Amino acid sequence: MKKTILEIDLNALEHNFNVISSKLKPTTKFMAVVKAKGYGSDSLEIAKKLESLNIDYLAVAFASEGVELRKSGIKTPILILLPQVESIKNIINFNLEPSLYSFYFLENFVKYINDQKIEEWPCHLKINTGLNRVGFSKGEIQNAIEKIKNCKPIKLVGIYSHLAATDDLNETEFTNSQIDLFKKISSEIKSQISYKSILHMSNTSGIFNYPECEFDMVRAGIGLYGYNNFLNNELLPVLSLKSVISQIILCNKGSSVGYNRSFNCKEDTRIGVIPIGHADGISRSFSKNMFVIVNGKKAKVVGNICMDVLMVNLNGINSNEGDEVIVFDSKNNAEDFAKSVETISYEVLTNLSNRIERKIIS
Ligand SMILES: *Cc1c(COP(=O)(O)O)cnc(C)c1O
Q: Is residue 231 part of a domain?
């Protein structure tokens, strides 16, 4: 019996891991980004699989995400990209590695580890090289380094930055200036500390488009799940979102479909009722342009997407109640789906709500 389901293909994940690894020097470390439930999938299943492939590092956005992985037995080092002050205690208790990115966070972190008499703690220093999102800017670095040097327990196991436009080849000059600035700042920092830190900068599209930006480690997120902003047919989509035709309603010409009568039938229309809606992460704003695949054909959404269901036009499509519906899969991939509804794969995937059952394929 079919229902709405998100399939997670761990073989595709392994394939993508191997494709990305093959682009790297053998000595370069691999950090897998599994934030936001593993880009909407299942961070634990993804992390377990990657651990079995000997991944060097994992990264999540917030400490709570790292705590969940630790509680489930994940042992790999975990970088917290955007730790909040309120989570410092958990960072220590669950053996997580924080980014030091602002004076507010750094000062609170220093206070906590001094109060707790922690002997040594691995941290990653985040440098802002132009994204202007998170991190210490050029003029702040020296002050931050002084504070770090004055706090014996802090060990900078990593120094990193994040690129703003690796997927836009019109921005190569800007990207190269970010890379140059990172090289300059990181070598200044290295000259002030007596041990070696891992330098890391590239995200997925950086790995593909800026091989000179590998440094000691890369941070791949979307590529592991099969996408790369750029058309790339080496990678395989990991996620497939499928549903079912719950019901077919025959609407006469002139009748309307959905709340506020948002669709009017210009002819007699077979309406397919699909049990997935905005509560599952299929945004109401997709109503206008979205289609699903039914028996190999495109069925356009009609009316407004509801909380639990959406309706499609099945005219001209040989179909029955109980037939499978594909929202996206390896052929009709989430990147193309995202484009058709004017967003990006990152948003489509991470919006998929908990209500959708996950099914692991391995
Ligand atoms: C999310 C994130 C990544 C992963 O980026 P992808 O484009 O998904 O590969 C890497 N680094 C940082 C700092 C991030 O926030």
A: no
The answer to whether residues 221 and 254 belong to one domain is no
Say what the pTM is: 0.96
- Which residue among 23, 57, 78, 81 is best mutated to probe the pocket of ligand 1, counting the most ligand atoms within 8 A of its Cβ? 81
- Tens of pLDDT, residue by residue over 10-62, are 999 999 999 999 999 999 999 999 999 999 999 999 999 999 999 999 999 99
Q: Is residue 232 scored above 80 in pLDDT?
A: no
Q: Are residues 16 and 94 in the same domain?
A: yes
Looking at 201, 225, 249, the residue that finishes a domain is 225
Residue 297 belongs to a domain with what CATH number? 2.40.37.10
pLDDT at 229 over 90: no
pLDDT at site 8: 98
228 — pLDDT class (breaks 50, 70, 90): confident
Looking at the structure, tell me whether residues 303 and 158 fall in a common domain.
Answer: no
CA distance 74 to 67: 10
Rg (alpha carbons) of the chain, rounded to whole number: 24
* CA of 220 relative to ligand 1 center, distance in Å: 6
Do the domain assignments include residue 234?
no
- Could you report the per-residue pLDDT of 76-87, keeping only the tens digit for each? 999 999 999 999
For ligand 1, atom 6, the nearest C-alpha belongs to 221
Rounded to 5 degrees, what angle do the CA atoms 19, 22, 24 make?
125
Q: How confident is the model at residue 1 (pLDDT cuts 50, 70, 90)?
A: confident
Residues 6+ apart with CB under 8 A from 173: none
With left for phi above 0 and alpha for psi between -120 and 50, is residue 226 left, alpha or beta? left
DSSP line for 217-233 = EEEESGGGGT--SS--T
Whole domain around residue 298: which residue ranges? 239-361
Evaluate whether 114 touches 90 at the Cβ level (below 8 Å): no
Tell me which residues are annotated as active site: 35, 259
* Atom 4, ligand 1: residue with shortest CA distance: 221
Buried b (16+ CB within 10 A) or exposed e, 143-166: ebbebbeebeebbbbbbbbbbbbb
The number of beta carbons lying within 10 Å of the beta carbon of residue 86 is: 9
